[in-house]
Write a structure and sequence with these properties.
Elements: H1 9-20, E1 23-24, H2 25-34, H3 44-56, E2 60-65, E3 73-78, H4 80-91, H5 96-101, H6 103-117, H7 119-147, H8 153-182
Antiparallel strand pairs: 1-3, 2-3
Length: 185
């Protein structure tokens, strides 16, 4: 079971979106179903319980809008506590485990960082990300050097694909750092 302050990727996605602007459950579902964030879940069976859980934790607060219409709308806003939890999660150090197993969470963290904590913290995150990716890439290369001759061609090709994807991530991070350091945003 997750600790109260440990966010699942779905909770992170929801908090990040609501942190950008107040949204209803329907609005969250719409973002998930019409953007690349859709792989988190556009299912009402996942989103609405997550919204209730997040609200119960005190991270968001729902307010009914258009009460006197036929379709009142429950719109969620980030609370001060929610903003703090989100900022803490976004700015925690990047680890080797994150790079190996949670790349989707890392990219989601990156997507919300600038809006929540600003450019300086985002650049710091990217530097940590690049360093961890490059360290992992180095250990994978060393491993490949040791076992390449004993691997099947399929295993080698699969490892080459993994190495290529880490190289691309490291290159992207260095380019993003440079762009953010040069821009005034």
């Amino acid at each position: 079971m997750q600790e109260k302050n440990q966010l699942s990727t779905l909770s992170l996605a929801i908090l990040g979106l609501i942190g950008q602007k107040p949204l209803s459950g329907y609005d969250v579902r719409k973002v998930f179903s019409t953007t690349p964030m859709g792989h988190f879940s556009s299912s009402p069976g996942a989103i609405y319980p997550a919204l209730k859980r997040i609200e119960k934790n005190g991270w968001i607060k729902g307010e009914v809008k258009n009460r006197k219409t036929l379709r009142p709308k429950l719109v969620f806003k980030l609370t001060d506590t929610g903003r703090k939890v989100l900022a803490e999660h976004l700015t925690r150090p990047v680890t080797k485990d994150d790079v190996m197993w949670h790349m989707d969470d890392l990219m989601l963290r990156f997507a919300f960082l600038g809006h929540v904590v600003g450019r300086k913290q985002t650049v710091k995150f990217l530097k940590e990300f690049a360093a961890e990716v490059e360290a992992h890439l180095s250990s994978l290369r060393q491993y490949m050097d040791e076992v390449r001759e004993t691997m099947s061609p399929y295993g080698r090709l699969a490892m080459d694909n993994g190495l290529d994807s880490y190289r691309v991530n490291a290159r992207w991070a260095r380019r993003a750092i440079k762009q953010l350091q040069q821009s005034g945003e």
